[in-house]
Amino acid sequence: MPGDQKFNFMANVLLVVSAILFIITLGIHARIMSREKVRRPYYTRNPVLTSIPIVSGYILPVIPFAIVFEVPLVFVFFINLIFAYLLGQLFTKTLLAKLVHGKGLAREMIFLFTGALIIMIIGIVIR
């Protein structure tokens, strides 16, 4: 059925976009943590809140990638570790150069994390 293929393709695109946004969230967090301690946002003082971007970059993209590529979660997890480490900073630099000016990175990180969650949920529901 052609209609089902269109929805499946759209769901796959949404899931891949959400995974990339999760990885960009990790990249923005890494950029925030590279600042001197005085200029870091308040959330960096709380270990629980600091772990959210790390989980967002290394664990949450595994769900959309596993759904799209239909491979085991463990395999996708290790591929995502390499993908997030190598391409996460590149995606983040590109996003920051094109869309933002480097001010309010914590707010932009929360915005991207929330957007990635919403897009992932929409992609899973459509699929």
Description:
- Helix content is 79%, strand content 0%.
- 27% of the residues are buried.
- It has 5 helices and no strands.
- It has one domain.
- Helix 1 packs across helix 2 (47-58) and helix 1 (2-33) crosses helix 4 (73-98).
- By secondary structure, the chain is mostly helical.
Sum up the structure in keywords.
mainly alpha; 5 helices; globular; 127 residues
Cα-atom radius of gyration: 15 Å
Query: What structural class do the secondary elements suggest?
Result: mainly alpha
Give a short account of the largest sheet.
Answer: none
Total domain modules: 1
Overall mean pLDDT stands at: 86
Low-confidence stretches: none
* Number of DSSP helical runs: 5
Count of extended strands: 0
Beginning-to-end CA distance, first to last residue: 14 Å
Estimate the helix proportion, in percent. Answer: over 70%
Could you say which overall geometry the principal axes of the C-alpha atoms support?
A: globular
Q: What is the strand and helix layout of this fold?
A:
Layout lengths: L1 H32 L13 H12 L3 H8 L3 H26 L6 H22 L1
In short:
The chain has 127 residues and is mainly alpha-helical. It has five helices and no strands. The chain has one domain.
